[in-house]
Amino acid sequence: MRVLIAVLAAVAFLAGCNTVQGVGKDVQGAGEAVENAAK
């Protein structure tokens, strides 16, 4: 599970977004993916 979270976090930060808002959306998306996986 920790590996999945680390991979999702890395993808979120390496997705190529250059704005703070874009990073926030990527992190939110990754968080939702982890939440859905936990269900």
From TrEMBL:
**GO CC term (a single one):** membrane
Any idea which UniProt keywords this protein has?
A: Cell membrane, Lipoprotein, Membrane, Palmitate, Signal
Q: Name one GO biological process term.
A: response to toxic substance
Pfam family, any one:
Entericidin
Transmembrane segments annotated in the record for this chain: none
The answer to keyword Membrane applying to this record is yes
> What family is it from?
Belongs to the EcnA/EcnB lipoprotein family.
Protein's UniProt name: Entericidin A/B family lipoprotein
